[in-house]
Predict the 3D structure of the following.
Amino acid sequence: LKRAPLPAAARIRDGNRSVQAMPGRAIVHLDLDCFYAQVEQRRLGLGAPPWTSKESLPLAVQQWDSLIAVNYAARASGVRRGMRATEASQACPGIHLVHVETLGTPQSASSSSTAGAGADGSVSGGGGSGEGEPDRRTQKACLRRYRQASEEVFAIFARHAPRCEVASIDEAYLDLTIEAGQCLKTEDGRCPERLQAMAAGTVCAAGCRADPSGDALLLAA
């Protein structure tokens, strides 16, 4: 949550309505953890939600020989983003290495038969080393499965926050000023003790605490 002050006379466009803005705005920043890894865990049926749990199966997503996403279970064994796949296997012997989808035909017939071509002509590599590795000389990385998963997530955002700004494939800003303002008009929202209790349990990563009076919109959001 971020404090974003506005002039008192400012107005917010909400669909086809223009409404009077409050002195501040409640902006919620959402960033999905280990997004590519979570997509692959769900797609392959590896474990069960929450896939961000350190108790889940260790998994990393690789593009060619470099890791581009690592879940928390693999990070606990020292696997890091940008690490080579062979290094990851040494650091975490039980890790699942999943290659991003690739388009094109592998240079060797053995790679093609091992990886398996999809109906759309794509080839999904298995990760790690040996036969089945995608060939960057004849293939192109394709991130559509992550874009499709991202669209699912943003569709949920849109149902709850019509004012949504996409920042990346796994990151968005939601303007919940109007919704928070409406919440503050309810019986619970008007209760100072409830806001104080919410503020007491709200601490940002930098150690800053919320102010029940000045940050009422943020607490309601």
In short: The chain has a mean pLDDT of 74.
